[in-house]
Amino acid sequence: MLNPNNDSERFIYHFNPEENEITMQTKNLAVYYGKTMAMHNADIQFKKNTITALIGPSGSGKSTYLRSLNRMNDDVATVKGQILYQGVDINRPKIDVYEVRRRIGMVFQRPNPFAKSIYGNITFALERRGVHDKQTLDEVVEKTLKQAAVWDQVKDNLHKSALSLSGGQAQRVCIARALAVEPDVLLLDEPASALDPVSTQQLEQTLRELKKDYTIIIVTHNMQQAARLSDYTVFFNLGEAIEYNKTRKIFTRPKIKLTDDYVSGNFG
Ligand SMILES: Nc1ncnc2c1ncn2[C@@H]1O[C@H](COP(=O)(O)OP(=O)(O)OP(=O)(O)O)[C@@H](O)[C@H]1O
């Protein structure tokens, strides 16, 4: 086992330097709420068409890290360090934050459909961008609801309120809404925590399908979910990315004892 307090021994996984394989990367990322440092030492790479799970105890900084990736923390926190998206540091003042959020979409813990129709939820961002052609909008609605695997359930009720959907359906509509603006990266913050086991299983299957086209980063408290769904896992503790590796290795042969304790349920 490596000593997490010894930086020379810290194990941080790095991919082969094939630039086009890496969609996103953070270097020396640190996030402060006021003067309090909530998270630091995150040197992580996200490979194209993979799912990365962020795991760790409550308050360890997973959501803080995730929200920083598309500048959602801008109003509440100071984010230091680099966030490279396709090689460009998006953590710079002159970057267009709306464009960042278009390319790096977010799905939240609780399904949060707008008080609009299912159709209106999907087309909302496009219409605000001036897309009003009905055929185009119809096509986007069908395509994204199919991608989110909820088309068959809602296709006859597209103009019904999205607030009338079940939790699982609403979460899928929120995924479709995120996909409508054609992102590259999907950030999901415990997207299954409000769902029943069947909806959770369906959501996981949807994410497996989506990774063919997207890079997915998911915060989860569910160890089984991280183990069965993700390709890579990052273990956070006390605001620090402690260990990062292929999921199989994190769950079978972690390099750091803290990680081993956490994934095997012996974390005190
Ligand atoms: N908006 C905020 N203002 C001040 N402190 C915050 C804010 N959001 C989070 N924090 C603090 O930052 C630290 C990390 O919180 P964060 O929510 O990122 O952890 P987490 O690992 O995602 O936790 P959980 O699993 O419970 O969601 C915690 O100490 C938390 O209290």
TrEMBL record:
MF annotations from Gene Ontology: ATP binding; ATP hydrolysis activity; phosphate transmembrane transporter activity
Gene Ontology BP term (one): phosphate ion transmembrane transport
Top-level taxon: Bacteria
Residue ranges annotated for the ABC transporter domain, each copy included: 24-263
Protein known as: Phosphate ABC transporter, ATP-binding protein
Alphabetical UniProt keywords: ATP-binding, Cell membrane, Membrane, Nucleotide-binding, Phosphate transport, Translocase, Transport
GO cellular component: membrane
